[in-house]
Design brief:
The chain has one domain: Winged helix-like DNA-binding domain superfamily/Winged helix DNA-binding domain (Arc Repressor Mutant, subunit A). Helix content is 66%, strand content 7%. It has a two-stranded antiparallel sheet with strand order 1-2. The N and C termini lie far apart (44 Å).
Length: 152
């Protein structure tokens, strides 16, 4: 049975706020079940992006919109907890490479499982066209945010 549409007077920010925890709760449950309960805040975004989208750590960190200090602390924590390894770049010794460890790849699989669980529930509740519209709308909001940040 499809979900009841919200009243027209519910503003989109309120809908986004109400919905935002769905993925986080599912991912957290998968991480805990897999023994990855020490993953720091935003760690799932970094590991999931690196493993499931072949994104470098630096791109994932930029996507968080945090300070360089916070980014460095997050990477340090992920390294200390065994999710990432940091080595000197063999092509440019002034740079570091950051890669997933086996533990990091296993955590990324749990992150993917949590994401797929919510995707499946959502797909069962709305039509393919509605899902497409949701994705287009969220992508447009992300584009507006990027443009606003670039203009600032």
């Amino acid at each position: 049975m499809p979900p009841k549409p919200p009243p027209d007077d519910v503003v989109i920010p309120a809908l986004l706020r109400g919905a935002r925890g769905s993925y986080a709760q599912s991912i957290r449950a998968e991480l805990v079940a897999g023994g990855f309960d020490d993953l720091p805040r935003n760690g799932a975004f970094v590991l999931g992006g690196m493993a499931n989208h072949d994104g470098p750590a630096v791109d994932m960190i930029r996507g968080l919109g945090v300070t360089k200090q916070a980014a460095s602390q997050l990477i340090d924590t992920l390294v200390l907890r065994g999710y990432l390894v940091r080595d000197v770049n063999p092509d440019d010794r002034r740079r570091m490479t950051i890669e997933l460890t086996e533990r990091g790849r296993a955590a990324a699989l749990a992150i993917e499982a949590g994401t797929r669980a919510i995707d499946a529930q959502l797909s069962a509740m709305i039509t393919t066209a509605q899902m497409s519209g949701l994705r287009v709308g969220l992508a447009a909001l992300a584009e507006i945010k990027e443009k606003t940040e670039d203009d600032a």
